[in-house]
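As a representative case, the lines below give one protein's residues and fold tokens.
***
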Amino acid sequence: MDPLIISLLHPNDSLGYETFFTDTLRFLKINIPDPANLEDDISTVYSIIKKHNDYDVIVFASATEIFDYEYMKMLTHNAHYVNNFKHILFYDNGYNSSNPITEWGPINVHHIQNTVTKLIVRTLDRQKYNANEHIIKDKNKVIGPDYVYYIDNMLTSQERNIKFVCLNKAPRVHRVRLVEEIVHRNLHNQGIVSCGYDSIKFDYSKICLHKLQHLFPLQVETTERITDDNDVNQSLSTFNEESFITVVAETSCEQVDHPLMRGGFGKIFITEKTLKAFITGTFPLILAPKHAIQHLRDRGFDMFDDIIDHSYDNCADPNIKVKMIVDQLENLLKLDIEDLRALHITHKGRLDANRMNTIHYTKDILDKTYPHLQQYISNIT
């Protein structure tokens, strides 16, 4: 692979920039670890852009997060109208309906999608296997770009004893309101629910709509595990494995309080949180931006529409969406544990198919990233 493309495909996790050169083009890549903090970093970013405004291509990259559309517009305006960049590329983990984003007038802003779902469940160093292999003898093992992905056999229906889980580490607004709604309806006693942890400072009183802030943080795992990103993001809790239903509050979701509030992004951003629901063979309820459920359907996931009413997927108001999701949870919880177990047994084949599709979802994104970037560079050369 071209060294330039390799460099472009691996954003750093600290704020800064890198420059690259070909025979005909000069590239400026600005690494923005968390665009949600862009208000704090914007002066530094603008200074970097101005210092290199004689370059040909500017690339905005984030290793683990996404650029909300509003922030993309801010950066595009400065790069193009203030500093005369003609070629602008965003490389992050969000989903756009098309690669070129042309709604912003005469600027051809391009987007290439990465993914944060590359490490799930268990991994082994790739060096232990032939780099040219794609499928090993056991079809449950598939080779990714850096690691071997393991999809373990999920627990049987008989081994599960938890009706539902809703596990949340960072207390983002939409997550707090989802958990509060679950608690308000007294459903939390039928499952495992968490949101926040003791060592993080967060004012729940400004967010809670039912005045239940005194119940937060709700913590069911150790602080040591919760604060270890590699552990909590890339491995499964036994709670995940032992449940029948997973209620997911994704990283991004629209916000009505403040549209640019942390986590208040309207761009679809599928993370390990959603894929854990599939990889453990559970029925999914997902709080995410509008049309995220349809996005998953389009990529081969069975959303069990014959069992769950996902009409909340057409709603852009997170407060309404929360109530609609909890309505569905409440309906499912009318089943006792044995009825849920029977439902799980009935649909084992479909649950297994979702579990295996998690590999294809991630691999499909990664397989397209290199040729997309190669084609982009070819088109502007």
Q: What stands out?
A: The first helix runs from residue 3 to 8. Residues 205 and 211 are 7 Å apart (CA to CA).
